[in-house]
Known about the structure:
heterodimer; A: six-stranded mixed β-sheet; five-stranded antiparallel β-sheet; 10 helices; 28% helix; B: mainly alpha; MetI-like fold; globular
Amino acid sequence: MGISVEGANKSFGDFQALSDVSIEVPDGSLTALLGPSGSGKSTLLRAIAGLEDLDSGQVTINGDDATRKPPQQRGVGFVFQHYAAFKHMTVYDNVAFGLKIRKWKKPETSNRVHELLQLVQLDGLAGRFPSQLSGGQRQRMALARALAVEPQVLLLDEPFGALDAKVRKDLRTWLRRLHEEMHVTTIFVTHDQEEAMDVAGQLVVMNEGRVEQSGTADDLYEHPANEFVMSFVGEVNQLGDHFVRPHDMEVVLDPDDRTQEGMVQRIVTLGFEVRVELVLSDGTEVWAQLTRNELQRLELREGQIAYLRPIQAKSFNGGSPSNPQGASTPLGTQDGGDAGLPAAV
Amino acid sequence: MEAHPANLPAPSQHRAGIRLPGLGVGFGGGMVMLYLSLIVLLPLAAVASEAFSLGLGHFWEQVTSPLAKKSLELTVICSLIVVVVNGFFGTILAWLLVRDKFPGKSIINAVIDLPFALPTIVASLILLTLYGADSPLGIDLAFTRTAIVVALCFVTLPFVVRAVQPLLLEMDREMEAAAASLGAGNFTIFRRIIFPNLLPGLAAGVALAFARALGEFGSVLLFAGGNPDTTVSSVFIRNQVESGNEVGAAAVSVVLLVASLLLLASVSLIQRWAIRHDRGSTDFIVTVENKDVSGGGI
């Protein structure tokens, strides 16, 4: 049950949008397809909806092979980044569109539409045209329209991408709650890792037409499969072959055999969190995430010399000895995966 | 360097946007009014005053004389047929030019405007050669009512194509994808989504084509001629002037003039209506967006 895609390939001319992509989306889950633009995430979503034909591969929706089905028969609700509102129709007619296609009777249609407009909190605006709505309202209308036909799956393509930051944040909280109430299998596409982690239970990270890794937000953050996932999900510093999260960078004033010297370039205070940017002696630029209290205790100034001690680091290619930086790093040369505490070397 | 060089007006005077150089509002506006008066308003007034120079009764008599009436009826009926035909084929042509890829597309796209550029009397001659008594195609339409329709179709095609084409280009294709995922088949998508969005352009194009067809003279003249059955109003007016009945010519002219003005007014109404539905007011959207945020209700 749920959605599964197996061995999906799709190219547009010379551009390989999807190469051998397989994903499993459990029934009733809320899954994010996360990746930079051009990673193939939207193409994959459109292929699931039938809006894009795959060159090869199979799409299964709730146990039925949907690969050859037209979008009309896939039982999919689709929400577009730019709303795709039927601009010549009122909000009511937009939401009622799918029901009219299904030849619902007027009273039933009216009940269903008003029920949905209440759900998306647009009930007073049924007579408006899309041009008279804000972006957030238009997207909620589009969501109501997609939900009206009781789709088996709900697909959202960068649904909040065109909205401003505040509205976007509110809407994603709202989407999460909506999903908790409705339990319809939902996939949403985003390039914003924070949004993906905030909303979705399961994440699929895509890059250059491939799935890099899938799992929960914690899995991806704690056990990234490769460099790309590590740097795309969360912030990261690169020290030779090793990758260190900024919050795993300890800044101290006294050197020891596990520290590296650096000069404080810039201190940015972002509320409770403080971002300290340093340049190492070999020119590498890194940053450490400290709390306000830590900064005050250290009394750091810009231009000052300080020492960095990575608490936890990861390496994905086994720290090749031919790399001089790898050799000089204080992290040691653990092979792959979690480096754990460098002190263990 | 001064922040505001002396030859630039102070920014506060700039608020309404840039102005044509060397023209004050009074002078520039006056010149435009004078030009408009000489070229457009005075001649219109002259025709109107000529038409009513022998009184309202005489005007009515002229307009309703059997020949005048017949020519007006013929003109209106032919024009109606023409806009229906061109509304249909013009939309299809615009569709092919925007949505399809085929060899020679850019040539066809350029040729669409030919009737705009071609002197209409030349069009008439071409049509006469093609569909006249010596037709290489074996189709002789010359001096028939069909010839009027064919000539008018030729002349008014670009109006519809050029009005529909930009709407098709700008149309949000995702509306169609959304409709498809909601279960709508191709025909329903065209009828319920695409066509309503083309309608403002189509209506405007059709109205302009109709106005043009009402007054078309050159392309009809050689091809359809002026026998009693094929005398459209413009040819009728010419005949009246030649036979010295200037009041009669002016009276029929006024009827055509009023019809054209009504059509232009309807075009502008249609476009206003379309803008209201399409874009709304940007200011309004911003206001709503702010409310959305401050109210906290999503």
